[in-house]
Amino acid sequence: MQRAITLAQSVLSAGPNPRVGCIVVRDGEIVGEGFHEKPGEAHAEAIALLAAGERARGATAYVSLEPCAHMGRTPPCSEALIQAGVAEVVYAGVDPNPQVSGQGLQRLREAGVRVRGPVLAEEADALNRGFLKRMRQGLPWVRCKMAMSLDGRTAMASGESKWITGDAARADVQLMRASSCAVVTGVNTILSDNPGLNVRPEQLDEEQAALIGDRQPMRVVLDSSLRTPPDSRLIGLPGEVLFLTGQPHPQQRARYQGSRADIREVALQPGGRLDLRAAMACLAQDYECNEVMLEAGPTLSGAMVQAGLVDEVVIYIGARFLGSDALPLFHLPGINRMQDHIALEITGVRQIADDCCITARLKHL
Ligand code: AOF
Ligand code: ZN
């Protein structure tokens, strides 16, 4: 199963599909293996079975996700395993997709195939945190990336923020973007930084660039009154762009005509701000976004944390002090009692050239 999981990791993302790996083992020897690359391409099991050919008969298949039971863009894998004469299927976790959810395993059992699992469930779940959360909760798995100084500041009072960290840390961010279905920001970041938010493989070494392939996540701007200038860099660069806005705004909307930008309305909260939960639900349910990367300023990032929509924070720390007038990492409402703190669990600490990167999970999730 470890080998199947490693195969699944051959791609950074197969979004909106899950990453899946499969090996077929006969008499202790791997006779076929495969992984799912992207929607429309063959599933992991189909590739492994093709490689195994006749040797699949009587063999054991290890799959990092329950084999599918439905006719999707490709035919059901449970049937393919049965047809190939596989004697046993070992799986890591059940596929929460309502079209599958246990039916793949049931179909195999009905056909007399031995079914064993879940094994290495935690490792396999880590492959597809976004897909699993979208299927179970109708929300994407959100990773909030920020860069700060060693005294916890994210930009100067003027908004100037280039650069807090070095090149190597910024290349790391490219990989994170490429593993996401969408990169989300707020209109204020567009107005102050005019970022491209695209994946730039030319900033990476050969091995990293190969892993990324031609993946470009959708770029999403939360812009309740459509203030993004039509000549913003993000609109000009290749790849999909989506504005989530609060009202029809026909006049502002007309300014984007002929551009690649797609515009969707989502609910507003009292006070005129976008309903962030509705915005995330829209990305998961209407755009099939599994993993979302939030690259925004302290206000939107703080509001997303406050709304309980952030699953993980990735904080790059540049070795410098920016002083007390500089902006804090998050704007969060004041907390008076220690017992009301927002708890995190640190899951990773890395040094990247002269910078440091801390990864932490929000504990209330
Ligand atoms: C598997 N093996 O390698 C993957 C599975 O549209 P399709 O045909 O690609 O089906 C996509 C769904 O199939 C996806 O939502 C998930 O439930 C399952 N993915 N299943 O048996 C695979 N990638
Ligand atoms: Zn399948």
UniProtKB/TrEMBL annotation:
Top-rank taxon, per record: Bacteria
Keyword Metal-binding tagged: yes
Free-text comment on the cofactor: Binds 1 zinc ion.
Record domain CMP/dCMP-type deaminase: where: 1-116
Cofactor(s) this protein cannot do without: Zn(2+)
Catalytic activity: 5-amino-6-(5-phospho-D-ribitylamino)uracil + NADP(+) = 5-amino-6-(5-phospho-D-ribosylamino)uracil + NADPH + H(+); 2,5-diamino-6-hydroxy-4-(5-phosphoribosylamino)-pyrimidine + H2O + H(+) = 5-amino-6-(5-phospho-D-ribosylamino)uracil + NH4(+)
Positions that bind Zn(2+): H43, C68, C77
Active site: E45 (proton donor)
GO terms (BP aspect): riboflavin biosynthetic process
Name recorded for this polypeptide: Riboflavin biosynthesis protein RibD
Organism: Pseudohongiella acticola
Lineage, opening ranks: Bacteria, Pseudomonadati, Pseudomonadota, Gammaproteobacteria, Pseudomonadales
